[in-house]
Design goal:
21 strands; single chain; eight-stranded mixed sheet; seven-stranded parallel sheet; alpha/beta
């Protein structure tokens, strides 16, 4: 029997789960079992847990459906636990170094106590000093083992479930489990303390709790706040027969939570009067004899609740509330007349059949927004689509696609009234997120390099990013965020913390890699000027944050000469550069200005790149990829990366121009080893790309179909990529 069972629910925190699990496995004290509780086999968190289980036999994952909630997950973990003491850890929290050793030492001193409470740190998600809110409460307790009656203020109501270690035999004896519903920590803490007889305290930090940027889900508006009263009634009923001191402390702390909710009507969209009435009835039923209400405004609230005076309570609440807790949303078009028109349009009703699209800050009709727009015209023809473009991109908008020039009167009008807004970057700072509108963030690549707030520790990148506060303000507009693989889902969760829903549907722009025909591939090659019968190698280097301007980083003429007579190079610079310095000449075809990176990929028989995310998209074609990593160490240190590409490349890695030419000259770029590496890479990063991504988005977002009815992802082994022009794949 292990000393500790550590239960870690993981719903919605897959991006940080590995940090939580690693903090346990890194403990100097090793007599424990670690029980991650995952949604289902194959979920993102389950994959993380399975990886850890494969590396350490002490990790024993179990499953609990999301519908069971936090209480169901913890109870599932409890049923699986075999340790002497049980601890709980949220999936985005960590154990402090040395925590288990400190707990073991304290329990050795105290003997078998029912509950051992300890301190915890609440760590701001971004900036600020950690706080330790348990210190004032635990400081008033006796030094050794004590009964709850000796510390009546320690009711359990003010402490989360992960702020104590619980003797498993005690929990089993009293049949203690987490109550169903929301606010389960309050119910659990109260029930445990009511039942406990021997208690002790450890005055050191055991858990480091990460405060989420979007705050506690419990504080969001919703009908779930009525469940608070269920938990309060449960604890009050269990606490009947306590000593007067304990009863009064328990009652006062419980109704402090109730009044906090009652005084915030925004938390209850409906039924606020019903909440107040039920709370008042509970108050009168369970009020201890000789209970003395606190002084000041809080005492007045107690008396109003006891008497059921809802109208007076509402008036008092209004008098006490300070003005304007929400940030003012001010549209910021530049011209006065446009600002006035935009403000007027914001007062008009949303157009339920209007969708607005933008890609790469208006550079043209491209990427996933274009793929979704095209599919929406097929599946949802009742929805009017307007694509936003810069003036110099108007001529490239396909015939039949309605557009609006960025900054124009029409631009601000459609942004003000559109029900659906789709972008692969972000809309302008002044765009207002209206209630009822739906913002879809499609992203434009799989993250190898650090993104979003993860860039903050890399000075060169952070300086170019600008205000992270403004970035997160834009993230708050997202309702959906599209992902092409579970790696992306987890990294977006870390880089762009928000309350959006992740749609693991694949990138719509990658659909064409499974739908394009041989004739379409041949047409694109002709348009780009690829000579008949030649092997077209796409060279797509990424942007270097520590460089200014574009540099190919490779002598392409020399590469062609060394790689073989049949090789031509398609040069595509990063989209930051409208045109690379190298012009089309001889065997070098500059395709940087071509509007569609998907067309360029279809035309290429092989890809050479450094660290560009184009490799993840191109892998869908199952054609050879070579990584040219002449400055990997510098890039990794200055830009930051999420994984070591050198350990898991999509094909051969070349460090010098000579090595790069050699893999083409001897054919190893397309050999068996290259094929094996690409297969592993595709399994990890082409997980949801199957040619149906745009259809899934349109059906779910525009047509409102439930998630279970959208087309399922086709298994990788059953997908047929678009054919290459000259290369016969193995």
């Amino acid at each position: 029997m292990p000393r500790f069972s550590i239960i870690v629910p993981s719903h919605g925190v897959a991006g940080r789960l590995s940090l939580a699990l690693d903090s346990v496995l890194a403990q100097s004290y090793g007599d424990f079992e670690l029980i991650p509780v995952c949604d289902s086999p194959g979920s993102p968190a389950a994959d993380v847990a399975a990886d850890h289980a494969g590396q350490d036999s002490r990790v024993a994952p179990v499953n609990s459906p999301p519908s069971a909630g936090l209480s169901g997950a913890r109870n599932t973990g409890l049923r699986a636990a075999t340790g002497s003491y049980v601890l709980f850890l949220d999936g985005d929290d960590t154990l402090a170094p040395g925590a288990l050793a400190a707990l073991d030492a304290r329990l050795t001193e105290t003997g078998d106590v029912d509950t051992l409470y300890f301190e915890h740190e609440r760590t701001p998600w971004w900036e600020g000093e950690p706080t330790n809110p348990a210190v004032p409460l635990l400081a008033k307790t006796p030094a050794g083992v004590f009964s709850p009656g000796q510390a009546p203020q320690l009711t359990g109501v003010q402490l989360p479930a992960w702020s104590a270690a619980y003797r498993r035999a005690f929990l089993t004896e009293h049949r203690l489990t987490f109550p169903e519903g929301r606010f389960t920590d309050l119910g659990w803490g109260g029930l445990v303390t009511v039942a406990a007889e021997r208690v002790a305290v450890l005055r050191s930090v055991v858990v480091r709790h990460l405060l989420r940027r979007q705050g506690s889900r419990l504080n969001l508006p919703g009908e779930h706040h009525h469940q608070l009263l269920d938990q309060v009634e449960l604890v009050l009923t269990a606490g009947q027969g306590l000593t007067p001191e304990r009863s009064q402390a328990l009652f006062e702390q419980l109704f402090a939570v109730v009044l906090k909710t009652a005084s915030r009507p925004e938390r209850l969209p409906s039924g606020h009067r019903a909440f107040f009435r039920r709370a008042g009835k509970l108050y009168r039923t369970h009020r201890p004899a000789d209970f003395r209400a606190p002084g000041g405004s809080l005492g007045v609230q107690h008396r109003l609740l006891a008497s059921g005076a809802y109208t007076a309570f509402k008036a008092l609440r209004g008098a006490n509330r300070k003005a304007s807790g929400a940030a003012e949303r001010v549209p910021r078009p530049r011209m006065l007349r446009t600002r006035l028109r935009y403000a007027r349009d914001l007062r008009r009703s949303l157009d339920p059949n209007l969708a607005v699209y933008c890609a790469y800050w208006g550079r043209g009709y491209a990427c996933s927004p274009a793929a979704i727009e095209s599919k929406a015209r097929q599946l949802a023809p009742h929805i009017r689509s307007v694509f936003l473009v810069e003036p110099d991109a108007v001529d490239a908008v396909p015939k039949g696609v309605e557009h609006a020039v960025i900054g124009s009167r029409k631009y601000w009008e459609v942004l003000a009234r559109a029900k659906y807004l789709v972008n692969n970057a972000n809309f302008a700072e002044g765009v207002v997120k209206r209630p009822g509108s739906v913002h879809v963030q499609t992203q434009h690549g799989t993250p190898l390099k650090k993104m979003g707030v993860d860039q903050s520790t890399y000075p060169v990148v952070a300086a170019a990013t600008g205000s992270f506060a403004k970035l997160l303000g834009r993230v708050d507009r997202w309702d959906y965020n599209i992902s092409s693989n579970r790696h992306s889902t987890q990294m977006w969760e870390r880089a762009f913390p928000g309350s959006y829903e992740a749609l693991e549907y694949g990138y719509p722009r990658n659909d064409v890699y499974y739908t394009a025909t041989a004739d379409e591939v041949a047409r694109v090659r002709r348009e780009l000027g690829v000579p008949e019968g030649k092997t077209a190698v796409l060279y797509a280097p990424t942007h270097r944050d520590y460089q200014t301007g574009f540099d190919t980083g490779l002598d392409l003429e020399a590469f062609c000469a060394a790689a073989g007579e049949d090789v031509v190079v398609l040069l595509r610079a990063h989209y930051f550069y409208d045109q690379g310095r190298a012009k089309s000449s001889g065997r070098i075809i500059d395709v940087t200005g071509h509007r569609s990176s998907e067309d360029v990929c279809l035309a290429a028989d092989a890809l050479v790149t450094d660290y560009s995310s184009i490799m993840f998209d191109y892998a869908n074609l199952d054609r050879p990829i070579v990584v040219y990593a002449d400055d990997w160490e510098v890039y990794r240190e200055t830009r930051g990366v999420y994984f070591d590409l050198m350990e898991a490349p999509p094909g051969p890695v070349a460090r010098t121009p000579e090595e790069l030419a050699q893999v083409f000259r001897d054919g190893s770029y397309a050999g068996p080893e290259s094929t094996a590496l690409r297969a592993q890479f595709r399994a990890r990063f082409c997980e949801f790309d199957d040619g149906l991504a745009a259809e899934r988005v349109v059906r779910r977002v525009f047509l409102g179909e439930p998630p279970e009815t959208v087309p399922p992802v086709i298994p990788l082994t059953e997908r047929v990529p678009a054919p290459a022009a000259t290369l016969v794949r193995s």
